[in-house]
Amino acid sequence: MEQPAQEQIVRFGKLLLNWYTENPRPMPWKNFSDPYTIWIAEIILQQTRVEQGTPYFERFIHRFPDLQSLATASIDDVLVLWEGLGYYSRARNLHETARYVFLELGGEFPDTAAGLQKLKGIGPYTSAAIASFAYGESIGVVDGNVKRVTSRYFNIEQDITSSRTSKFIQDLVNRIVQEIPSAEFNQAIMNFGAMMCVPRQPDCASCPARSTCRAYQLKKVDDLPYKSGTTIKKKRWINFGVYVNQGRVAMIQNKSSNIWKNLFIFPVIGSEKGLGSFLESSKKSKAPDLPLLGKMNWELSHRKLHLQFYLVDQPPTDWEQNGKIMMVESKNLENFAIPRPLRLFLNKISYNLSIKKSDDQ
């Protein structure tokens, strides 16, 4: 692969800046320049659309307005606020990194991308975003939007999932931000990828870059970017036991290192090892001889979960697989971090089981 000429990449950068100026995208974190707020926004936006992430960002900053408030909070408080966003390791890493920066670094974030990348949960993209937006470092960001836009505009036909292609694109955008302010360019290319040069059916007819876009000229827009292979999601079957007594629901805090770590779940049925054993096995679990309350299919990035919920009239003795059983008052369930599918199931069955009501005493 040969890098484009400097004149070509500068023209590309200026074109995006002009588009960015004419097409503002309101985002609440754009009004902040401190590394803490930018860090929170960037972590929330990982694997999350801006429209979905905005209310979470606003609630998070309201609850944890600065590094100290996050560092001194409990992980349970953080997970409750994160509920529904998924990828809960992001929340755990946020909390751990906040504590480290507050306690070990005197509350000061590193001021370079290289230094930021040493912190847990901060990779090349996030470190570049914080360094450019908060400190003005001349470094380009590379995410899915950036790879798509550059692949099409410069006709990069190589696999964007390869480290070689990623480095090529990183070098390309780094050259651009030597000529153009990094914060403005980085925001411009990300917005352009999210609003104009979208994955499917981009609006090429009204795109200001079409006259110089190589993919458009070669009629290859739908073919780029190129990705090799497709991730096959593993199927997993999980049986949950739902025990309700006097308006209280049996829950355990999942200590498994798999999905939903530290979140509160129904105890699982049919395994002495708890949730972890279901996630390790690809075999469909045997249905217990219990009343079935409902079924639900739920997709994660790497798994297809087939969830089944059974009503039990008393807690089995082997239920404390990965945590101590807690009988939670229905009115207090909102204060616990519960995986999204289990929360939806609780909401669905709450009236039938009288979960929302305590005994009339």
At the first level of CATH, the class of the largest domain is Mainly Alpha
CATH topology label of the largest domain: Endonuclease III, domain 1
SS content category: alpha+beta
Distance between the termini: 75 Å
- Helical fraction: 40-55%
Question: Could you say how many structural domains there are in total?
Answer: 2
- Counting H and I runs of at least 4 residues, what is the number of helices? 14
Present the secondary structure layout.
Elements: H1 6-22, H2 35-45, H3 50-63, H4 67-71, H5 75-82, H6 89-104, H7 113-116, H8 124-135, H9 144-153, H10 163-176, H11 182-195, H12 214-217, E1 234-242, E2 244-245, E3 248-253, E4 264-265, H13 275-280, E5 292-299, E6 303-311, E7 326-329, H14 340-349
Parallel strand pairs: 1-6
Antiparallel strand pairs: 2-3, 3-4, 3-7, 5-6
Family: Belongs to the Nth/MutY family.
Enzyme class: hydrolase
GO molecular function: 4 iron, 4 sulfur cluster binding; 8-oxo-7,8-dihydroguanine DNA N-glycosylase activity; adenine/guanine mispair binding; metal ion binding; oxidized purine DNA binding; purine-specific mismatch base pair DNA N-glycosylase activity
Structural account:
With 361 residues, the chain is of the alpha+beta class. The protein folds into two domains: 6-223, Orthogonal Bundle (Endonuclease III, domain 1), CATH 1.10.340.30; 234-349, Nucleoside Triphosphate Pyrophosphohydrolase. The chain is 40% helix and 11% strand. The strands form two sheets. Strands 2, 3, 4 and 7 form a four-stranded antiparallel sheet that branches. Strands 1-6-5 form a three-stranded mixed sheet. Strand 2 (244-245) and strand 3 form a beta hairpin. Helix 1 (6-22) crosses helix 10 (163-176). The longest helix has 17 residues, at 6-22. It is globular and about 75 Å long. The termini are far apart. Mean pLDDT is 87; it is low at 355-361.
